[in-house]
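Anyone opening a protein record will find just a pair of labelled lines. With that in mind, the following record should read easily:
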Amino acid sequence: MNLTDRVAVITGGAGGIGAALARRFAAEGAAAVVVADLDAVAAAAVAEDVGPVAHAVAVDVTVEDQVRELVADTERRYGRIDLFCANAGVSTGAGVEADDADWDRAWRVNVLHHVYAARAALPGMLERGGGYLLHTCSAAGVLTAVGDAPYTATKHAAVGFAEWLAITYRDRGVRVSALCPQGVDTPMLADGLASGHLGAQVIAASGAVLTPDQVADATIAGLAEERFLILPHPEVAGYALRRAQDPDGWQAGLRKLVRRLRA
């Protein structure tokens, strides 16, 4: 996909990867960029920074009616949605002891939000004969987020759902990509490091932390090639291959790293 003259919607657009995507889409010549976020003030600030093509909307992605209205409002305002980026996500930093509320929030933001977006955006895309769904799924969706059971489980589900969409709708003109970055310099990572989140420590120890703008660059390249898996950290492909070929060895390596960090 070429972003020139396209209408794009980005959830979780008020910061981190979402804000970087908004800026980059505008720089690529997008006709409109809708910055959607639970934080209305921050979304408005990003839209103002992006410029005249941007429009901010307050949306709680865990409420299907609000996601449906986001899509309907964008289609009324601009006539179509060419690219819907389901980018909002949450982590917990917890294991099996995470309470039901944390599991439910991770499920609703990291998975059901993608379902709601697809339900709302697909009818218009199918009627027009084309469109693009971009799901931010994280490298945790193809590997494991050490120290965060809800994040790992829900991001795997997000990748699985994106793959199902790609298989089901590609021949009807709708392309789907799963954006799977590993360490990114965002508030999520900073908060995790500050709180002693084991997964954040693993990422920091890897030394491969990208800026949101670098992730946006990789996203543009992936969209141009219409790749299903967009991997801003190319090494993730190698990790995934090792994990598939030798799951016991892969797990042993991670356990060794965890022991070293805990020591």
Remarks:
- DSSP finds ten helices and nine strands in the chain.
- The two ends are 47 Å apart (CA to CA).
- The chain has a mean pLDDT of 93.
- The longest strand covers residues 32-37.
